[in-house]
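Mods, move this if it's the wrong board.
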Amino acid sequence: MRNTGIYKLCIAVIATGFALGILNKPTACALGFESLASTLTKPVDGENRSINEAFRSPEHWRGADGAMSVELSPIKTLWLFGDTWIYCESKTPRPDRNMINNSVAIQTSNCDAEAEAVGSLENVCIDSICWSFWCKGKLSKPESIFQATEPNSYYWPGCGTVYDGKLYLLLKKIRKKDDPNPLFQFDWYADDLLIVSNPQDPPIKWTYTIFPVSTWKHEVEYGLACSKDKDFLYSLCFLNEFPKTTKKTILARIAWKDLLAHNTQKWEYWSSSERLPQGAWQADFRNVKNIIPDCGPEASLFFHKGLKCFVAVYQPPLSPQVKFRVSRKIEGPWSEALNIFTVPERRLKDGKTALTYAAKAHESLSTGNTIGFSYCENPGGIEQHIANPDVYFPTVRTFTIAPEKVREMLDGAGSPKPKP
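Not the wrong board. Structure tokens:
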């Protein structure tokens, strides 16, 4: 059994917590679930039962974390996952399984387009919504959908968006490192931009190019969350202030004209100084603003059309709380954080507690005055995964917020926090 990357964001969250101070034959799995349109129009809070059942239904795709989403078209959404369990045979007490470092799913309402699922193991459509889960390789030896060219390196998904018909993904490049603590045997050492020229095709037919975006010493860690407008791609990032052990959560942007010319190093950073206290975009990141101080290594950042403002949803490191902030501008000032959900404690069979992390909102699930968000749970090491096979799945929920509360948060954004 291969266990590369088993600790993925379990490790990343803990490490970040310390840092913050607190294919041969392509294989795929497919399934379907209740129409998203029906779930989105219900202004009720709680679990999105149909999506959660969908994530837990495949025979061979048996759990993952990450769960970022990118709308590819009005009828198609891409979901990106991190470390993923692939079962060769799931109906035995101890099935043959492998873990790969990333996989994807395509959600579509076009269930008649059989060509979209060519190479899949299962195809199920329910209420006009179909899902197909994808990886490369053989079922007995699956491979990640995105593969790094450097030896002993692999990708974890960061964030992405679509512009001018192409898919832009920021990926975290990972390699193993020696550490006496198995929870820290990884090194997030670089970030790459992957550009898919044909994202409407099945994932195994994607053609893509990869460009480095990292700063020289990887001071800036890109890809916590992405957003866009007509002129720029934005990335929420961590800034490592060596030799300090703390990190800032900063905002970077790069012009589409530069990306189209493959000038992937021309990032600017939202900064402030005594001369420019209100903030300005600068090529130097030495004076960057820490815009969301308690952000985790995965988040979401987008303009919510229903709420008519920018929203950020995330989970602070080592915290069960899902946080929500709003701003009239992507640069801020951002409001104080509102706790919209506390993940219930999940006890494992050995009495220990599962780790929860990676909360983020999904733009395609957030309409009206609702926020559709997900979070992940991780039982820990290999034996814990085997003993608790129902834990390692994303969970999707809906939160409804009153417009008056949003206005209150927006009006208070940038104001000094009251002293206790």
